[in-house]
Design a protein that fits this description.
The complex is a heterotrimer of chains A (about 325), B (about 55) and C (about 60). Chain B has about 55 residues and is mostly helical. Chain C has a 3-stranded antiparallel beta sheet with strand order 1-2-3, with no helix packed on it. Classes of the chains: A alpha/beta (about 325), B mainly alpha (about 55), C alpha+beta (about 60).
């Protein structure tokens, strides 16, 4: 079989997904045997003009991680879509928005203001902000336009497969590599993880399941054997797709939902609110109010990774 | 509901835009009065728009 | 003035672009290094619970 042409790209990303691919350790040699990597900024020195010159659909598979929040990221997403036979939305940012999508709880203006002007470590007396076009003595410089909203890859181009995770686990990555090697990819549109929620994978003992107090994670040291939700910690596992091996829960911290909503659930945050509210033991209004207070940051916790993929998508931007 | 409202507030959705009531099929008058109340409440708040202009701000 | 663009810079974490302006004799007149990305951690971490920071800020850089 001729070697596959493989491309990997990062948009609004942190590099974690690229490093996760390298985490397959010696199996990277299997990947090298299977494919010629034609574009991978973290590891190889191919430029955008190399990709531009490729014929359409000449890349067999492109693993695209990172969210879309600038005109350049959108442009490269469209370019790689055109040049690739199969485009994989790789990692939570590309699939659901990821952590960078928490920026949808603020505004572009506020972000620019904070990052370039207000931040204590800045030295910017002229309050200069990045511009899309600027003239310098030698010529002109350009920068991409930052979008107001953080978008998922699929909100910008059609995508064949989704591999969730922050980052996707090595097991999952090897599953994808194997499917490519044996030409046995699932039907188009598949999310390559488990078809059940995390609770299914989690070994902890589930007993009473009703709670009368919600704790923030620093307030208690949980029992390592019992269900975290039952102990009053906000574990998102109830409305999160499994497939990660319950890694976080295994080290005694509650799940934060990086694998996105489980099958059949459209909005992860809404499902989480519903799941958690349904296990409140009390019907007393004062107790309920207290327990609502105990949830420190509903929007940022229930949509930690899935803001762009949610129904509301962002905080309202109110006209000034 | 209180949990949902707390979260919606973080999204900029005012408390008065969300309401949950249980009304049986036989409570016609009560249904009408609740709908009228809610309509007036939301009208007073004005139209809701998520963004000023979408991805390009 | 001739311009040489290096885009993207590679084999490190992050996005970057380098524009090199050349004089007629081929010597470098000036070079500009630009960062074409911003995610806004400095802002969107505000309002999040402090104990969640160790689960949010490692996503600044996964390398």
């Amino acid at each position: 079989m001729a070697k596959l042409k493989l491309a990997l790209y990062w948009a609004g990303a942190c590099g974690g997904c690229d490093v996760a691919v390298l985490d397959v350790n010696e199996k990277i040699l299997d990947v090298a045997n299977l494919a010629d990597i034609v574009f991978w900024p973290i590891a190889l020195d191919f430029k955008y003009h190399h990709v531009e010159a490729m014929p359409d659909k000449s890349i067999d598979v492109c693993l695209f991680n990172g969210c879309i929040r600038s005109s350049e990221q959108e442009h490269i997403a469209k370019m790689l879509r055109a040049k690739s036979k199969v485009l994989v939305s790789f990692g939570s940012c590309a699939c659901f928005g990821g952590i960078p999508a928490l920026a949808n709880l603020t505004t572009r203006a506020e972000i620019m203001e904070r990052a370039y002007i207000e931040a204590p470590s800045n030295e910017n007396p002229n309050k200069t902000l990045p511009q899309i076009k600027v003239s310098v003595p030698e010529g002109e410089l350009t920068l991409p336009e930052l979008f107001e909203d953080v978008l998922t890859l699929a909100q910008v181009v059609p995508v064949e497969y989704f591999v969730p995770g922050c980052p996707p686990t090595v097991d999952l990555i090897l599953k994808v590599v194997n499917a490519l090697a044996t030409n046995s990819l699932p039907p188009v549109g598949a999310i390559i993880a488990s078809e059940k929620s995390l609770c299914d994978e989690c070994d902890r003992k589930k007993e009473k399941k009703m709670i009368s107090k919600i704790y923030r994670t620093h307030e208690i040291i949980p029992d390592a054997e019992r269900c975290l939700l039952e102990q009053g910690l906000l574990c998102m596992g109830a409305a999160t797709r499994g497939g990660c091996g319950a890694l976080c829960v295994k080290v005694n911290i509650p799940c934060r939902g990086c694998f996105g909503p489980p099958p059949g659930v459209k909005d992860q945050g809404a499902k989480l609110i519903s799941s958690i509210a349904s296990i409140y033991e009390t019907k007393d209004e004062k107790d309920i109010a207290r327990m609502v207070d105990e949830v420190a940051d509903p929007a940022g916790t229930f949509y930690r990774f899935g803001m762009s993929d949610s129904m509301l998508k962002r905080k309202r931007v109110q006209g000034k | 509901m209180p949990l949902l409202k707390k979260m919606l507030a973080q999204f900029g959705v005012e408390d008065k835009r969300v309401r949950l009531d249980w009304v049986s099929a036989s409570e016609g008058e009560r249904f009408a009065s609740i709908v009228n109340d809610m309509t007036e409440q939301v009208r007073a708040l004005g139209p809701f728009s998520r963004t000023d202009g979408g991805k390009h701000g | 003035m001739k311009k040489v663009t290096i885009d993207p810079i590679t084999r490190l974490e992050g996005h970057g672009k380098i524009e090199i302006f050349l004089n007629d004799d081929g010597s470098v007149a000036n070079t500009y290094f630009q960062i074409p990305e911003l995610r806004g951690f400095e802002k969107f971490c505000e309002g999040r619970p402090v104990e969640e920071m160790p689960r949010i800020v490692p996503r600044i850089c996964g390398v």
